[in-house]
Design brief:
By secondary structure, the protein is an alpha+beta fold. Helices cover 37% and strands 17% of the residues. It has four domains: 1-10 and 91-316, Metalloenzyme, LuxS/M16 peptidase-like (Cytochrome Bc1 Complex, Chain A, domain 1), CATH 3.30.830; 327-533, Metalloenzyme, LuxS/M16 peptidase-like (Cytochrome Bc1 Complex, Chain A, domain 1), CATH 3.30.830; 561-789, Metalloenzyme, LuxS/M16 peptidase-like (Cytochrome Bc1 Complex, Chain A, domain 1); 795-1019, Metalloenzyme, LuxS/M16 peptidase-like (Cytochrome Bc1 Complex, Chain A, domain 1, 2-Layer Sandwich). The chain has 31 helices and 30 strands. The strands form six sheets. Strands 1-7-8-6-9-5-4 form a seven-stranded mixed sheet, sandwiched between helices. A seven-stranded mixed sheet has the order 17-18-19-23-20-22-21, sandwiched between helices. Strands 26-27-25-28-24-29-30 form a seven-stranded mixed sheet, with helices on both faces. Helix 26 crosses helix 27 and helix 26 crosses helix 30.
Length: 1020
């Protein structure tokens, strides 16, 4: 179960991963509210009486073009009653006599699967200050046990039905809603009935008794402890600052230590009875089942539920306070320096009309235009690494425009000035028609792609879309209607309207700016206040060039290559085509995913082309190679070329190959192939792109990880590879040594090395696909193949340790972690054994959950997994890890010892094995028609023909595992004389003494691992 923290989606610049990717608003956006396509509707009258004005579309936008809406002859269902948008008639809506609403539909993608969501209109905004965290606490208690599913039994029932906890069954709590989710991979009437019975029991009659509260309190506290991080602490301060005086600014949905510690069964039950009511409930179901049967089951299981007491009034969510402080400085040494500028306006409920949506689409286009200009500036000599703008109606509390800025270095004043200048230019000067046309086509093509692929929209997406629409009091429409509404509003997207929209979005009843710095100085707040209040001059030379960039702008490739071999593979409808230059194509023309073409290109030898002892800065390649450009086209020119098309440039380093991949379309995939081939034939080396990659590392790097989770993520994978330099965590010292000349020296020969394998799967014509590859990769000269030396094709597991090594972090002292791993193997000769090890890991994982989480509350996310490298003959391992309090570390190791000893001593029960096998069986049934799944299984087939047999045996290998197999694997691999272990502690916290055991000795003399000057963990 997870909590959706208020405003989390608004602070993308807080996390390092966000910095390594294009800003979410600067990339191809989700087109307007309707274009998700989940977005619009006021909840019916019993719930809709919220303190907010009802307003029409913004007056600054002219009347829209006629749309496809027609006044209905009959009353609209509850979901559409305040809207004139075309209804998605695939949905059937209804209201039970007790006020509960439902929405159901049939959908056979995937076949036999049914997705259920039960959305309660209650979240942390309904809590009183002394009830902070209660909504989330009750979410936990509901899953733990209820009238019809005793303590922990719902998890086991759903496992037997093939649903995996945390994947297929879950829940989340946000400031405005609590949603319970169940995805049943393969259902029948009995399984559906049982599932709805449990869900109805969970929301209407959870077991809120002292014993359950005490047991679950530890789990909720563990979840809170694991979530503590400098980024979360900064987020909490930002929330309180932005939404000062409003409930949204009060607390995180997970609550506080004081309120969680003080929560009693009586207080929690009172909160439940006040807010958990049928008239605040919506049941949403989509799947491969008869809608009439689904409706009857909803009536049967939810119809008898009656609310307790009078319906409570909704609390007032408040309005932005213009008198609250406008500037704030936060000292946050362990997060990147960042600036957040926020324009706040009161949230207002809007009727979900076509006019409203078309006006919002003008807003979205205006923001996209600014984001493109910011992204272009960031690739040049700007003082910011990343900047983005986004509009959001945040939890019915504010309507806001958020500006996120990550400066280069510490010159935040210059970065703020530059970003505001770009925005000011958009506020003052209308865009050109060419600017509008450029952005319009991006959104239009995204919506058109939704239409093309709508037939394969998964049930999970459909139910989640509708729930998201309920969250924002709006509706959903079919993709075709969405596109019609967008195109119907094209006449509104005039230069003046776009400028006026920009002015409106960058104006607020309150404006705030928050600066996060690593070290605050006495004058910092005064400097921020001065920078915020300084007059803003519009930027010059930020308007984008309207020079056309087309495929003809790319360097010319040689004449198309000739086919040397064309034969069926003999499986899955795949054909193998080999060209005279050695390039091999695997083409699978099928309509499984209409409108989609998956392209994957493998070349070279990946990690194995580097020495395990050589620091070759592999970390810099994914963010630098593709963004550097092709020929004489830089990244901005490539963005212009790809604008509004299904084209992408993605690069990965795998163990035995480099890959480029994209999901394209029938009309674009031939150009996608040419883009990839041109990248190999005409690579461009760009100092500015490399400098940006280096800047990102410098900005996001912490000498010592800032939480237990960060310490595990940074170090454990590398240490379990015996400090393999190819996967070592990068440091600023590494970045300082990286020049463009060195980068080119490393990568130029590797881009030119090794035969090429191309996979083209999806909505294509076979012969046309062959011709497209002939004109791209088939046209390249034959490539040399530098086989890696034997020492590069080795992956090592570290030596056994007598005591756990100690990793340190700079987070809260109550955060700790524990890890133990055993070496297994690698390669393809024992692939069946590797798959059985996955089943062993699943069983260990479930036992960890049952004991460490459900029973003892010692850990929130204990886990076990198996890593078996098919490309190496050695180096695999089975790992067990968790986060927990420092004093519980001995308990963790003792319990793992007990589990391992028990698995080796006796076979698992038939029920325990079945509860792990069934979810895998259902998963394999779902993915057998998945294009990405089979592309992954068969990648590298041209080099290793065994992969076809391995793919064919996958299901049997995993599902035929026996209790005796599990016992034998545990005996063979989980040995105390080979294990490696580590603990994670905050700096200054002493390791706890561990009782003697066959596996772990006393930790007093344990080697302590910290960050050296190079940033890599070194045992002292």
């Amino acid at each position: 179960m997870t909590t959706l923290n208020a405003g989390r989606r608004l602070f993308t610049a807080l996390t390092a991963i966000a910095l390594l990717l294009p800003g979410p608003a600067a990339a191809t956006p989700a087109p307007a509210q309707k274009g998700k396509p989940a977005a619009q509707k006021p909840i019916p009258k019993p719930v809709a009486k919220q303190t907010a004005a009802k307003v029409a579309a913004p007056k600054s936008v002219a009347a829209p073009q006629p749309a496809t809406a027609v006044a209905p002859a009959a009353p609209r269902p509850w979901f559409y009653e305040h809207s004139d948008v075309p209804m998605d008639t695939a949905w059937q809506f209804g209201v039970l006599p007790n006020g509960l609403r439902y929405a159901v539909r049939r959908n056979d993608i995937p076949a036999r699967m049914v997705s259920i969501r039960v959305r309660m209109d209650v979240g942390s905004l309904m809590e009183k200050p002394e009830e902070a965290g209660f909504a989330h606490f009750i979410e936990h208690l509901s899953f733990r046990g209820s009238r019809d599913a005793p303590d922990g039994e719902s998890k086991r029932i759903w496992q037997r039905l093939g649903a995996e906890f945390g994947v297929d069954t879950n829940a989340q709590t946000s400031p405005i809603a609590t949603t319970f989710a169940v995805d049943l991979p393969e259902t029948n009437a009995a399984g559906l009935d049982e599932s709805l019975k449990i869900l109805a029991s969970m929301v209407s009659a959870p077991s809120i008794v002292p014993q359950a509260v005490e047991a679950e309190r530890s789990i909720v506290m563990a979840e809170r402890r694991e979530s503590l991080s400098p980024a979360l602490q900064l987020e909490d301060q930002a929330r309180a600052f932005y939404y000062a005086g409003q409930p949204l600014g009060r607390h995180n949905p997970i609550g506080t230590e004081a309120t969680l510690s003080g929560a009693t069964a009586d207080a929690l039950r009172a909160f439940h009875d006040r807010w958990y009511r049928p008239d605040r409930t919506v049941v949403v179901i989509s799947g491969d089942a008869d809608p009439a049967m689904l409706i009857e089951l909803v009536k049967k299981r939810f119809g008898g539920w009656q609310g307790i007491g009078a319906t409570p009034p909704l609390p007032d969510f408040g309005r932005p306070d213009p008198q609250a402080p406008a500037t704030k400085v936060v000292k946050s040494p362990d997060t990147p320096v960042s600036i957040r500028l926020v324009y706040l306006r009161p949230w207002m409920f809007h009727d979900d009309t076509i006019a409203f949506n078309q006006a919002r689409m003008v807003d979205d286009l205006a923001l996209q235009l600014i984001n493109r200009r910011l992204a272009v500036a960031a690739t040049g000599n700007a003082s910011f690494i990343e900047a983005s703008v986004v509009r959001d109606d945040s939890y019915r509390s504010v309507s806001a425009t958020y500006v996120n800025i990550v400066p280069v270095g510490d010159d935040w004043e210059k970065a703020l000035r530059e970003v505001r200048a770009i925005i000011e230019d958009a506020r003052r000067t209308p865009p050109s028609k060419a600017d509008i046309d450029r952005e319009f086509v991006v959104i239009e093509n995204a919506l058109a792609q939704q239409v093309a692929t709508s037939r394969i929209e998964a049930s999970t997406q459909q139910v989640d879309n509708l729930v998201s629409a309920l969250d924002i009091r709006e509706t959903v429409v079919a993709p075709g209607a969405n596109l019609d509404i967008y195109r119907g509003g094209r006449a509104l997207m005039t230069p003046d309207n776009v400028r006026d929209s920009t002015r409106r979005m960058f104006t607020g009843t309150a404006t705030r700016v928050l600066l996060s710095v690593k070290g605050e100085q006495p004058t910092t707040l005064a400097r921020l206040d001065a920078a915020f209040r300084a007059p803003v001059q519009p930027a010059r030379n930020v308007r984008l060039s309207n020079k056309a960039v087309t495929m003809a702008s790319l360097p010319a490739l040689p004449a198309p290559g000739k086919v040397a071999l064309d034969q069926p593979l003999g499986a899955l409808g795949i054909d193998q085509i080999v060209f005279e230059n050695g390039a091999t194509l695997y083409v699978n023309a099928n309509k499984t995913e209409p409108g989609k073409v998956h392209v994957n290109v493998r070349f070279g030898h990946g990690q194995q082309s580097f020495s395990p002892d050589e620091n070759a800065a592999l970390w810099a390649a994914p963010a630098t190679l593709m963004a550097s450009g092709i020929g004489n086209l830089d990244s901005n020119a490539l963005e212009e070329l790809m604008n509004g098309r299904q084209l992408a440039l993605q690069f990965r380093i795998e163990e035995d190959a480099f890959t480029m991949s994209a999901v394209s379309s029938p009309k674009d995939y031939s150009d996608q192939l040419r883009l990839f081939a041109s990248k190999l034939a005409f690579p461009r080396w760009d100092a500015a792109t490399l400098a940006r990659t280096v800047n990102v590392l410098n900005v996001t790097y912490d000498p010592v990880p800032n939480s237990a989770g960060a310490a595990i993520q940074r170090n454990v994978g590398w240490l379990l590879r015996d400090k393999d330099a190819r996967v070592a965590p990068p440091t600023p010292a590494d970045a300082k040594q990286l020049t463009l000349e060195k980068f080119k020296e490393v990568w130029e020969p590797r881009l030119a090395n090794g035969p090429i394998e191309i996979q083209v799967y999806g909505d294509v014509n076979r012969d046309e696909a062959i011709a497209a590859v002939a004109a791209s990769f088939g046209a390249l000269p034959r490539r040399p193949d530098m086989i890696p030396p034997p020492e590069n094709r080795v992956r090592r597991f570290p030596a056994q340790v007598a005591q756990p090594i100690v990793l340190t972090h700079n987070g809260t002292p109550e955060q700790a972690g524990a890890i133990i791993a055993w070496p297994t193997g690698g390669g393809e000769d024992r692939i069946r054994e590797s798959r059985q090890l996955e089943m062993l890991a699943r069983i260990i994982n479930d036992r960890l959950f049952e004991k460490l989480r459900s029973v003892d509350g010692a850990a929130y996310t204990p886990s076990a997994s198996s890593d078996w490298p098919e490309s190496y003959e050695t180096g695999g391992y089975l790992i067990v890890q968790t986060q927990l309090r420092p004093e519980r570390i001995p308990y963790f190791f003792n319990f793992v010892d007990e589990v391992v000893a028990d698995l080796a001593a006796k076979p698992v029960s038939a029920d325990e094995l079945a509860r792990e096998v069934e979810p895998v069986r259902k998963y394999l049934g779902l993915v057998r028609s998945s294009i990405p799944f089979w592309m992954g299984q068969l990648g590298g087939l041209s080099r290793d023909p065994r992969k076809l047999a391995m793919a064919r045996s996958l299901q049997d290998d995993m599902l035929s595992v026996t209790a005796a197999d599990i016992q034998a694997l545990a005996r063979h691999y989980l040995r105390s004389d080979t294990s490696w272990s580590a603990v994670v502690l905050a700096s200054g916290v002493q390791p706890p003494a561990l009782p003697a055991s066959p596996r772990i000795a006393d930790m007093a003399a344990a080697p302590r691992v910290a960050a050296s000057e190079s940033g890599a963990a070194q045992a002292n």
